[in-house]
Amino acid sequence: MAVKFQSEEYFQAANEALRNSEEVASAAKGHNVVLQVLTKDFPGEGDKKSFIRIDKGAILVGSGEVEDPDITITQDYDIAVQLDKGELNPQVAFMERKIKVKGNLMKVMSLQKLLQALGPATQHIEREY
């Protein structure tokens, strides 16, 4: 059964998949960082906030605003969908200014392996966009 992209059901399924991924666990090890993600023009919702929290290697994703994020990523909805589907590489999106990153860029660079592991770990989740 498909879940709506970035819905509570989506985040529940994603968290379960991320907990069960050895690749994600390995890539998250030693990291402590909070990312706020702002997706602009989310259909039916306007601007939508979500987060990725990595604490002592444990990762949690969810909807909502976090206090004092280390990094804030801003993207349009269509870019978020392309990234989620694996149709757009995050590094290319950054270089082409399709996503904006504010905050500690060194931390972002250190998270590349982890960010690349998120897609394959959650790929099996059927989504509606």
What does this structure look like?
By secondary structure, the protein is of the alpha/beta class. It has a single domain, classed as Nonspecific Lipid-transfer Protein, Chain A, CATH 3.30.1050. The chain is built from 6 helices and 7 strands, in the order E-H-H-E-E-E-E-H-H-E-H-H-E. Strands 4-3-2-5-6 form a 5-stranded mixed beta sheet. A two-stranded parallel ribbon has the order 1-7. Strand 2 and strand 3 (46-55) form a beta hairpin. The model has no long low-confidence stretch (mean pLDDT 94).
Short description:
By secondary structure, this protein is α/β, with parallel strands linked by helices. The chain has helices at residues 8-19, 22-28, 77-85, 90-95, 105-110, 112-122, and strands spanning 3-4, 33-42, 46-55, 58-63, 71-76, 99-103, 127-128.
List keywords for this structure.
129 residues; alpha/beta; Nonspecific Lipid-transfer Protein, Chain A; 5-stranded mixed beta sheet
Write the layout of secondary structure elements.
Blueprint: E1 3-4, H1 8-19, H2 22-28, E2 33-42, E3 46-55, E4 58-63, E5 71-76, H3 77-85, H4 90-95, E6 99-103, H5 105-110, H6 112-122, E7 127-128
Parallel strand pairs: 1-7, 2-5
Antiparallel strand pairs: 2-3, 3-4, 5-6
Helix pairs in contact: 2-6
